[in-house]
Amino acid sequence: MSRVGFQLHSRQDRADVIRRLSAALIASAFALQIAGCTVPIERHDWSEYDGPGAEHFRVPQYSLPFHKDPLEPANRIFFGVSSALIVGVAEPVSSGWRQVVPQDVRTPLVRAANNIEYPRRGLNNLLQGKTKEAGDETARFAINTTAGVLGLMDVAAENGIQPAPTDTGMTLKKAGWEDSVYLTLPFGMPGTVRDVVGGVGDTLLDPTIYFFPAAPIKGFIQGAERMDAVERFVTTNPDPYEMSRRLYLAQRQGTVAASSERSRSGPALETLAYAMLAPRDAGFDLRGRTHRVRIAATDRRLPYDVWMQKTPAPLVLLLPGFGGHRESYANMATAEMLFNAGYSVATISSAANFEFMRRAATITYPGFAPADAADVRRAVSAVCRDIESRDGDLVTKRALVGVSFGGVHSLFIAASPPRDDAVAFDAYLAICPPIQFEYAAQMLDDYYNLPLSFPEAERDARVAGIIKSGALLTAAGPGASAGIELSEEAAEFLVGLAYRVSLHDTIWTSRQRHDSGILKTDWNALTRASASQEILEYSMMKYAYAFLLPELQKAPAVIDDAEALLEYSDLRRLTMRLRTLANVGVAFNENDFLLAPGDSTWLRNVFGDDRLANSPDGGHIGNLGEDAWRTEIVELLKRLLDSEVPASNVGSMTQPT
What we know:
The protein is an alpha/beta fold. Helices cover 49% and strands 9% of the residues. It has an 8-stranded mixed β-sheet with strand order 3-4-6-5-7-8-9-10, sandwiched between helices. A two-stranded antiparallel sheet has the order 1-2. β1 (182-184) and β2 (190-192) form a beta hairpin.
């Protein structure tokens, strides 16, 4: 549920990414000679399956609209070229600009640059028959150019006149050019053939192209502000091309979703705030450092990020939610919250994230909490030792804090029996952990399948509109609505979609590590769209039984039967152990839809008032940006660290059966 992000903190980090992209481009150039442009979607036949979880394979699944990508091989090569330039050139230069020029100066410059582009917006709104929008743009230009001092200030918005962005590509769509082949040009952003043609019109309507070098200066001012987010997207997704293509087409084809519900309350709508969460200090990520630590079980090096206090302080190891990257905007915002509270903070990627899976996972398919927690435990232990070898004199205590599914792992680690190779923590805190895996997974599957209740004739169009609305809300940032109103039902679908995309990335990475034969669609370095569509059709529950269960059954002494797959991932199984640990606590929201009926009562019975913080609302981690809730979380962590259970004694407690 976050705007995924990644900051390359060293030249070595950046060089690694560039080498990886360069190798992919070389391989792609050869593969292009033999790759076909269209690969049919094939599927495993589950119609006769009657094994464990068979009922989940009979449930109808919503299938996202699939747009064929006949130019995919060439598109991927050009996308790779652009990505390499972004990582190696554009972002370093943009980062330097952002560090040298204060935000208070850059923001007015961006406003002025946008103001100059009035002819494109005004004329295209008029050509599309949007006379009100054309009038609003004209009024905005007149007001901001005069009272706003050449557009440096958005006086029009302060008076309720909002922008109406559009372009020539949308005018061509209005004129009848509906369907268009997806196209990515070298050194260019994603688009379609229609939008590339429309781009010519946009260029001719840009006054700055007639006054060199005004156009490149304007482009740099605008692009530098979003280059960090673009780089993060490129470097933290296992297949950024496919995700950018789907998102782009949804936004270009969709119409902003209309909502009959004017209230913005509701757990799913509240949860969307997590997607807008970002560090309050734009330079927070640059204050940290990226290191790598060897994981003995895999003999590979896992990156981690760390922000150290200048004076001795407790160290917090932070675990993100399902599929989360260590430097997603939301995870960094949580790290910033803890750092500002006086803690040193280190963070790794989720056990279900491609980075962790490739470097630190001992199993192919993540999702079984005990196994995932064991891998995470080895990783955080290695990180702790590495930090203490570098800055041991600055670490006073250690705490493990997990968010969402990362919180589940933190609780499993807290309840685990002692191991000689594991580092013990002075405190363990889980923020909004799902208690019952089966209930949470089924709820997310149900959310994703909500479009099945829409009339079939308008289903895909409504979904595209919801995705576009969600993207606009996310881009608007915390506290802004961008004039968009979503229904609770639409928000539920967006939540389900976010987790389905994370699951897609998990399955894709697993297939690259080991092809179990379940997935049937062919793929290669340049043709992956059809295989991606097949993967998206697997729900959380289907994944559990189709991929995860067979692997666990092959491993000796992991689970006895299929029922144990879900039973052993249920936190209630740890009731006796968690009740005895005075240094383990939970912060949760009463209206979290991933909590089953009775889960909040279980939490109170197990942790009591001293080891619990609860909020009446916030949905699933949607209130993590609110000051009052942050204060409660920080105070709970302090109480846990002050408990009479030092890390050296944690291992003396035996694990009950």
